[in-house]
């Protein structure tokens, strides 16, 4: 009993020290140094904390397992080292059922646990809004982006088409990047399409990326929760100028968002985006020879 009491009293200062250390952490540190977190501000979307929670918890568990494993390896190397005057092999340990059960059960629990929490969060992240406030089609192309803001009819639909980023001799971007506008605190569903090869739509601070396939549309539903400017890029090697396939994201108020759509309409950028630049003109059903013959 006295030894147990001493152990409890010894753990108290350790717990206090851990609490103080964690209290001094910034939001970036508490969220595993992932982007998208600013002290005193909302997360970038309603999903980013879920992603960071899965990331941080996984690393904590893995680090604990690593520390225990490294500790046991170090202890075994020291405790069973060859001492002066010893020859031959040490006594071998065989068929220790408790240890074998431990080495089987614990990894199984870890694997099942990681799978369960990942599957739970993935199900939520992949759930699409049935009736989003905003519906947008993002089209990836070599090597830029087009954004179509879908209305209730084709007349209410507007778009912007981007061009590949241009750089100077030092590699600094000197051209205007395609920009995606999103209204804060509004439910958003983005339809992801590819015009040519496989791309990947990635808004870095939103902690999410999703592939864009030829002939198969993907979807992403979320709610932006913090106004600001964010960077986006293609996260799938898609050709020679993949590194130039960049875009910006502006999360703005609903009024600013409506003003932006009105500016696109005033510029005559209405209706569905023209597929004149679509490179897939030889697919079955398009009227072209699938073998590429003239």
Helices and strands in order:
Blueprint: H1 2-23, H2 27-30, H3 48-79, H4 97-125, E1 134-141, E2 144-150, E3 158-161, E4 179-183, E5 188-194, E6 199-203, E7 208-212, E8 218-222, E9 228-234, E10 246-252, H5 254-266
Parallel strand pairs: 1-5, 4-10
Antiparallel strand pairs: 1-2, 2-3, 5-8, 6-7, 6-9, 9-10
* Percentage of residues in helical conformation: 25-40%
How far apart the termini lie comes to: 91 Å
Structural class: alpha+beta
| Beta-strand percent range | 15-25%
Q: What is the string of SSEs from the N terminus onward?
A: HHHHEEEEEEEEEEH
Low-confidence stretches: 288-294
Mean pLDDT: 84
Global outline: elongated
Strand order of the largest sheet: 3-2-1-5-8
Biggest beta sheet summary: 5 strands, mixed
Radius of gyration: 27 Å
Number of helices: 5
- The counted number of beta strands is 10
Task: Summarize this structure briefly.
The protein has helices at 2-23, 27-30, 48-79, 97-125, 254-266; strands at 134-141, 144-150, 158-161, 179-183, 188-194, 199-203, 208-212, 218-222, 228-234, 246-252. The protein has 294 residues and is an alpha+beta fold.
Write up this protein:
This protein is 34% helix and 20% strand. Strands 3-2-1-5-8 form a five-stranded mixed beta sheet. α3 packs antiparallel against α4. It is an alpha+beta fold and 294 residues long. The termini are far apart. It has five helices and ten strands, in the order ααααββββββββββα.
């Amino acid at each position: 009993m006295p030894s147990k009491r001493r152990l409890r009293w010894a753990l108290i200062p350790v717990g206090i020290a851990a609490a103080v250390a964690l209290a001094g952490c910034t939001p970036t540190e508490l969220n595993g140094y992932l982007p998208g977190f600013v002290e005193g501000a909302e997360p970038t979307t309603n999903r980013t904390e879920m992603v960071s929670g899965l990331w941080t918890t996984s690393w904590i568990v893995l680090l604990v397992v690593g520390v225990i494993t490294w500790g046991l390896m170090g202890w075994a190397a020291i405790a069973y080292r060859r001492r002066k005057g010893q020859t031959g092999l040490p006594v071998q340990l065989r068929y220790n059922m408790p240890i074998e059960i431990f080495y089987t059960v614990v990894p199984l629990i870890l694997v099942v646990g990681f799978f369960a929490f990942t599957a739970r969060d993935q199900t939520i992240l992949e759930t699409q809004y049935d009736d989003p406030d905003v519906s947008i089609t993002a089209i990836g192309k070599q090597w830029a982006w087009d954004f179509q803001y879908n209305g209730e009819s084709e007349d209410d639909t507007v778009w912007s088409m981007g061009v590949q980023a241009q750089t100077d001799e030092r590699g600094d971007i000197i051209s205007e990047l395609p920009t995606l506008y999103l209204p804060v605190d509004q439910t958003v569903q983005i339809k992801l399409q590819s015009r040519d090869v496989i791309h990947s739509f990635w808004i870095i601070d939103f902690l999410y990326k999703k592939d864009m396939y030829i002939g198969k549309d993907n979807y992403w539903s979320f709610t932006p929760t913090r106004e600001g400017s964010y960077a986006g890029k293609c996260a799938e090697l898609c050709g020679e100028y993949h590194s130039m396939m960049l875009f910006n994201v502006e999360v703005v108020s609903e009024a600013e968002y409506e003003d932006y759509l009105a500016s696109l309409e005033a510029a005559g950028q209405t209706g569905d985006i023209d597929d004149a630049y679509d490179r897939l003109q030889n697919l079955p059903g398009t009227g072209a020879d699938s073998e590429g013959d003239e």
